[in-house]
Design brief:
By secondary structure, this protein is of the alpha+beta class. The protein has two domains: 3-20 and 232-426, UDP-n-acetylglucosamine1-carboxyvinyl-transferase, Chain, CATH 3.65.10.10; 23-229, Enolpyruvate transferase domain (UDP-n-acetylglucosamine1-carboxyvinyl-transferase, Chain, Alpha-beta prism). Helices cover 30% and strands 27% of the residues. It contains 14 helices and 23 strands. The chain has helices spanning 23-32, 49-60, 87-92, 100-107, 126-134, 165-175, 191-202, 234-247, 262-271, 315-323, 343-348, 379-391, 402-405, 411-416, and strands spanning 3-8, 13-18, 39-43, 64-69, 72-76, 109-113, 138-141, 145-149, 157-159, 181-185, 206-210, 214-218, 226-229, 248-256, 274-277, 286-291, 302-303, 327-332, 352-357, 360-365, 373-375, 395-399, 422-426. The strands form six sheets. The chain has a four-stranded mixed beta sheet. Strand 7 (138-141) and strand 8 (145-149) form a beta hairpin. Helix 5 (126-134) runs parallel beside helix 6 (165-175) and helix 6 (165-175) packs parallel to helix 7 (191-202). It is globular, with a radius of gyration of 21 Å.
Length: 427
């Protein structure tokens, strides 16, 4: 199915909007549920395509998983079986790689086809394999799949060659039930990694986050039933904050974890975005109010870095903000060579931008944007172009818009409630 969004640009936005749970935290928690042969309840789960695909994949493993409230899942993996794993679903999303660790831990062997997902450039799985091999697994990479097996994994010291979030998560899930102590050095500590640690600890694990990107895991024999609320999605906050800065008279964004968004808030302040932050609630979440600024926005340099640095996923919407800032901004993503794949469409809409190489772009503003027929290449690019369409003059049509649904829950409807004019057509 192809989804096409048509946006009538130039509208001003007002109102309040709530952020659903973090997509990048939800997918590892769903995979980690395989480690708990008891009831798992997840709250604030985003109803997005990637989550629905993960649910279907778990169901092919005979996992009982049901929506028990609007954004609540109840899961029981007692009868899990991997003999009928759906290869097409595995291939459809990158997050299926998160099953390597828990399946190896529970079943001692796993065969997966190459996971799919967004167009972000070359993302080899070597770091995952290195982590699992250091725990004692044998890895056999074939042309169409990878076979990983271990009769008995052994707690060990793992040194990751890069700050890979999903490799860190796989290492944690593979090690949590091993006897002894596992130490992960060079671990990613992004909010969704911290959420996985919190979730597993609530279920009885003994995992500690140490200084200098180190994680220590003291193995336990068994994990128990757990109920966990997923924090608001920081990538959605970044996109909504940029949209608010460019198109809102006043919007209030609810469900923001400030400790997950410190660098994004710092860059918003550097650019000159006018926002205030409420006191945190019982979930340590705040409401961020963004109002129209009377001053010109200033250009800024942004480089993606491991947390607590600027998040790679937040760079895409900031490219649109840069088109409306005075001066030249440099945006640099050293990790993904296709993170800036949407920039040619911004240029088509009127942006003054120079793609220096696959990892860097220079954007000079402010320049008016004009609606065009464009394409969504990945989740973040799609949301970014939706923002561009809202502030552009005239009509913007985004094809392959179903990619946006993979990461954002009913984004078009929620933005229309603020005053946007977005229509959806599916074929």
């Amino acid at each position: 199915m192809n989804t096409e969004f048509t946006i009538q640009g130039g509208t001003r936005l007002n109102g309040e909007i709530f952020i659903p749970g973090n997509k990048n935290a939800t997918t590892p928690l769903l995979a980690a549920s395989l480690l708990i042969q008891d009831t798992v309840v997840l709250d604030n789960v985003p109803r997005i395509a990637d989550v629905q695909n993960m649910i279907r994949l778990l169901q092919t493993m005979h996992v009982k998983i049901d929506w028990t409230a609007e954004n609540q899942l109840t899961i029981n993996t007692t009868d899990a079986d991997i003999t009928q794993l759906d290869e097409d679903l595995v291939k459809s999303m990158r997050s299926s790689v998160l099953f390597l660790g828990p399946l190896l831990s529970r079943f001692h062997s796993v065969t997966l086809p190459e996971p799919g997902g967004c167009t972000l450039g070359n993302r080899p799985l070597g770091t995952h394999y290195v982590a699992l091999q250091q725990l004692g697994a044998a890895v056999n990479v074939k042309k169409t799949c990878v076979e990983i097996s271990a009769k008995k994994l052994k707690a060990s010291e793992i040194i990751l060659p890069e700050f890979s979030v999903t490799a860190t998560e796989n290492a944690i899930m593979a090690a949590v039930l091993l006897s002894g102590k596992t130490i992960i050095k060079g671990a990613a500590i992004e909010p969704h990694v911290q959420e996985l640690i919190s979730f597993l600890n609530d279920a009885g694990a003994k995992i500690e986050l140490k200084p200098q990107h180190r994680i220590e895991i003291t193995g336990v024999k068994k994990l128990h039933s757990v109920s966990h609320r997923i924090a608001g999605d920081p990538n959605e906050f970044a996109a909504l904050a940029v949209l608010g800065a460019l198109a809102a008279d006043k919007i209030v964004i609810h469900g923001v974890r400030p400790d997950h968004n410190e660098m994004v808030m710092l860059k918003l302040a550097d650019i000159g975005v006018n926002f205030t932050v409420s006191q945190p609630n019982k979930n340590n979440e705040v409401s961020v109010t963004i109002t129209k600024s009377s001053k010109k926005y200033k250009a800024v340099d942004i480089q993606a870095l491991p947390f607590p640095g600027f998040p790679t996923d937040a760079q895409s919407p900031f490219t649109v903000l840069a088109t409306q800032a005075e001066g030249t901004s440099l945006i640099h993503d050293p990790l993904y060579e296709s993170r800036l794949i949407h920039v040619p469409d911004l240029i088509k809409m009127g942006a003054e931008a120079t793609v220096c190489d696959p990892h860097r772009v220079m954007i000079t503003g402010p320049t008016p944007l004009v609606g065009q027929n464009i394409k969504s290449f990945n989740i973040r690019a799609g949301a970014t172009l939706m923002i561009a369409g809202i502030i552009a003059k005239g009509e913007t049509v985004i094809c392959d818009g179903d990619i946006i649904d993979r990461g954002y829950q009913e984004l078009d409807q929620r933005l229309n409630a603020l005053g946007a004019k977005i229509s959806r057509e599916e074929s």
